[in-house]
Amino acid sequence: MIIINTEIKRLEKYAEENNVPIINKEGLKFIINYIKKNNVKNILEIGSAIGYSSINMALVNNKVEVTTIEKDETRYLEALKNIKKFNLDKRINLVLGDALDINIETKYDLIFIDAAKGKYIDFFHKYANNLKDNGVIITDNIYFHGLVEQKEKIEKKNLKQLVDKIKEYISFLKNNNDFETKFYKAGDGLSVSKRR
Question: If one looks up domain 2-195 in CATH, what number appears?
Answer without folding.
Answer: 3.40.50.150
